[in-house]
Amino acid sequence: MSPLFLVGLVATAIPLVLHLLRRRQAPVVAFGPIELLLRAERRVRRRVRLRDLALLGVRIALVALLALAGARPYLRVPTVAGLAAGAPSSLVLVLDDSMSMQAKGARGSAFERARAAALEVVSSMGSDDNAAVVLAGRPARAVVGALSFDRGMVRDAVAGARVGWRATDADGAMAIAGRLIAPSAQPLRRIVVFSDMAAHGVAPGAGWKAPEGAELRVVDVGTEDLSNVAVTQIVSRLAPEAGDGVFAIQASIRNFGPRALSEAVVTLEVGGHAVARGFVDVPARATRQKTFFHAFDGDPRADVRIARDELAADDVRFVQVDVARPRRLLVVDGDPRPARYDDEVFYLVRAMEALGLAPTVTDAEWEDPGHADGAGSNRFTDFEAVLLANVPAPSADRLEELRSYVRRGGGLFFAAGDNAARAASRNLGELFGVTFSEAPVEEGPFRLARPDRSLPIGDAFSPSGSGLISARIDRRLRVRARQGTQVPLHFEDGSPALTASRAGAGRAVLLATSIDRDWGDLPIRPGFVVLARALVDHLTGERTGSASRREILPGQPRVIQPTGAVRKIVVETPRGASIDLGAGPATFRGAEEPGFYRVLVERAHGGLAEDTQSSFVVNPDPSESDPARLDRPGGSRSGGWLTLASGLRKLPLTPYILATLPLLVALETFLRRR
Q1: Domains of the chain listed by start with CATH number
Q2: What is the pLDDT of residue 38?
Q3: What are phi and psi of 161, to 5 degrees?
Q4: Contact in structure between 122 and 154 (CB atoms under 8 Å)
Q5: 544 or 447: which carries more pLDDT confidence?
Q6: pLDDT-derived band of residue 83, with 50, 70 and 90 as boundaries?
Q7: CB environment 184-196: b (16+ within 10 A), e (fewer)
Q8: How many helices (H) and strands (E) would you count in the chain?
Q9: Burial class (CB in 10 A: 0-12, 13-18, 19+), 290
Q10: Residue 571's closest CA among 616, 620, 619?
Q11: Least confident of 140-144, 329-333, 450-454, 478-482
C-alpha cells in the first residue's frame, strides 16, 4: 500500500471549487414598479437612521448637560487684575470720556477699551455688590447718581456712554465719586478709574486720589505712543498791510511727538471750501505758526486743518471772524508825554492797532468838561467802552457821567499810575466795586498768582498767555474787592490785581498796576496784546476779530442775549440740528461737538434770521492734545495701577447650560414626533 497516494484525496476539492465558481446566476430582469419601491425604501431607511442618530445624540446631550449643571463648572478668562472683590463691595466706576480718549490704536480707541473693561467689572459683580457710574469729562457728572444693586441699569449706563470732546475733570470726578461712595455700608468701598492716564487730566504734581475710606484702582487704557500733532490755537485780526478788508488767520501747530514734522500740509477752509494751503516744518515737541491772508466776502466762518492722525479731533480748529462794524473805543490818556514811547497809552494803543482796532485817544481834562482838546469834547455815550489810563481825580459831575454811562451799558476800564493813585477815593472805588487803602500805593516787587480762568480777562494771564503771569510789578494800588466783585487775578499775597464788576447793564474793570513801564514790565510782554483783546471783549460784550468771545469749550453753557426783543431763539448745531430755546435771553447747554453754532432769532417783524453777534464756535481744550502720561502713583491711597486683561476670573457656565436645556428638550420632542 502506498499511503502517499492518499494525498490525492485533497484533489477531490477541485470539482467542488469549480462547481461553486461556475454556479449559474439567475438573470436579472428590470421591472419598473418594483425598482421604484426598492429605491424609496432605501431613502426612507437612510432618513430614519439619521433621525434616530440625531435623537440619540440629543438625549445623550440632555443627560450630560444635567450632570454638568449639577457640577457647577466654570472657565478662567482674562480680566482686569486686582478687581476680584470677594466681600460685598460698593464700586464707583469713573469713566474718562474726554477728547484724548478718542486716540485710536490697534485695539480701537482708548475709550472703547475703557468701556469694555468697565463692562467686565460690571459682569463680575455679585448679587451683594452695588455700583454707580461717573463720567470724567469737564464738568464731571454722574450717570448713575446713587449706588445701585440693579446691575442691568449700571451695565446700560456704561454701555451707553460715548466719548466726547471735553477736557478731563479728574478733581470733579473724584469729588462726585467720594460723595456717592460715602454713605455705603459695604465692607469694601472702591473707586475704579478707567482712563488713558494723560498728565493733562490732573493738576501739576497731583494725581487721581481717592477720598478717605475708599480704595482706588486705576485701569490704564493708554498707550506708550506719545506722538500727536494738533492745531492748538487760531487767531484772526485785520491785516491792513495786506489790503483793505483782509484778515490774517494765524494757526498754531504743535508737534507733541519725539520726531520732527517736515512739510506738514496746512489748509484754510472758508464756508466748507479750501481756499489756501501751505506747508510748515515743526520740530519735535515744538510749536510753529502758519498765517493765511483772506478777504471775507460773505461767510465769516473759517477753519484750519492738518492731516488726520490717531487723534483726529484736534486736527482742525474753528474761528468766526467779526467782519462787522469796528468797535468804538475811547482811550483817555492821564499822563501824555512828548516822546511817544514814554506816553501813558503808547503800548495800549499799539496793542489795539495790532487787533485791527482804531481807538479815539484824548487827554484827561476833568476839571474843564468843555475843554476843546480834553475828554469833555467826547461824549462817553458815543463809545462802547472807555479806558482810563492813569487819570487824575474826576470832578463830581464827570464821575456822575461815568456812573450813568456804565449803568446804561457802557464798559469802563481803570489802570493805575501816579495820577490815579492820587485820584483814589471812596466814590471812585464804588464805581469799580473796590475799596482803596488809606495808603494805596505799595512798593514791590510783586508777582502774580495763578488766574481764575472763568472770565476771558483772567484767561489772558494763563501760563500759556505769552509771559503775562510772570510779569514783574514794581508798584501797585492796594485795593480790597467788595461783595459781588469778581477777582480774576490776584497777586501772590492775595491782594487783587484785576477786578471785574457789574453796574446796571455795564461792566467795570480795574487794573491795580499801570499800563506803561513806570510801574512794571507788563506792557512789554508779548501777551499784552492778548490782555488788550480780552479787555475789549469783556467791556464791549463782543469780539474784536478774534475767537475769544465767540469761543467756548465743549460742555460749557452758552448764554445767548440778542439785542432787542426777540420772539424765538434757535441754535443750529454743526450737524444741522435745530434747537428751539424759546424767547430770549436763554442758556444753551448742548455745545458738545466742535464746530460752528449759528444762532437764529425771530423778531417782531420778519422770520428767523441769523444774529451773527450771538453765533459762536466750540473748540476743544488744547491741553487734551498732549499725550504725555502720568507716572505710576504710589502710596496707600493712590491704589493699584492696573492693565487690561492682566488677570484671570472665574466665568460660571451653569447659567449658559441651563439656558441650553429648553432648546434641547424642544428639539428632542420635534425629532420624536417626526
Answers
A1: 76-221+636-652 (3.40.50.410), 229-323 (2.60.40.10), 329-540 (3.40.50.880), 553-618 (2.60.40)
A2: 66
A3: -70, 145
A4: yes
A5: 447
A6: low
A7: bebeebbbbbbbb
A8: 12, 34
A9: buried
A10: 616
A11: 450-454
C-alpha cell at 112: 472703547
What is the structure's pLDDT at 653? 78
H or E element in which residue 318 lies: strand 316-320
- pLDDT higher than 70, residue 366: no
Strands 89-95 and 130-135: parallel
What's the CA gap between 346 and 476, in Å, rounded?
20
318-351 burial: b if 16+ Cβ within 10 Å, else e: bbbbbbeeebebbbbbbbbeeeeeebbbbbbbeb
Cα separation of 12 and 419, whole Å? 151
CA torsion, points 297, 303, 305, 308, in degrees to nearest 10?
Answer: -130
Nearest-angstrom CA–CA distance, 184 and 204 = 31
pLDDT at 341: 81
Q: Is the pLDDT of residue 553 over 80?
A: yes
How deeply is 34 buried, as exposed, middle or buried, from its count of CB atoms within 10 A (0-12, 13-18, 19+)? Answer: exposed
CB atoms within 10 A of CB 175: 14
Return the closest-CA partner of residue 599 out of 609, 607, 585: 609
- Three cell numbers at 351? 496793542
* Grid cell for residue 117: 473693561
User: Taking all residues of the chain, what is their mean pLDDT, rounded to a whole number?
Assistant: 82
Residue 141: strand, helix, or coil: strand
What are 621's three cell numbers? 481744550
Question: What is the number of other CB atoms lying within 10 angstroms of the CB of residue 607?
Answer: 8
pLDDT of 286 reads 92
**Which has the closest alpha carbon to 311: 227, 417, 234, 432?**
227
DSSP per-residue string spanning 147-189: EES-HHHHHHHHHT----SPPB-HHHHHHHHHHHHTT--SSEE
Most confident of 72-76, 199-203, 253-257, 529-533: 253-257
How far apart CA 277 and CA 258 sit, in angstroms, is 25
* pLDDT classification of 246: cutoffs 50, 70, 90: confident
- Residue 14: what pLDDT? 61
Helix (H, G, I), strand (E, B) or coil at 472: coil
* pTM assigned to the model: 0.60
Q: Residue 309: is it exposed, middle or buried by C-beta count within 10 angstroms (0-12/13-18/19+)?
A: middle
If we measure between CA atoms, which residue out of 577, 647, 624, 556 comes closest to residue 111? 624
In the chain, the N- to C-terminal Cα span, in Å, equals 76
Confidence of residue 4 (pLDDT cuts 50, 70, 90): low
Question: What cell was used for 582?
Answer: 424759546
In angstroms, the CA 158 to CA 119 distance is 7
pLDDT at position 350 over 60: yes
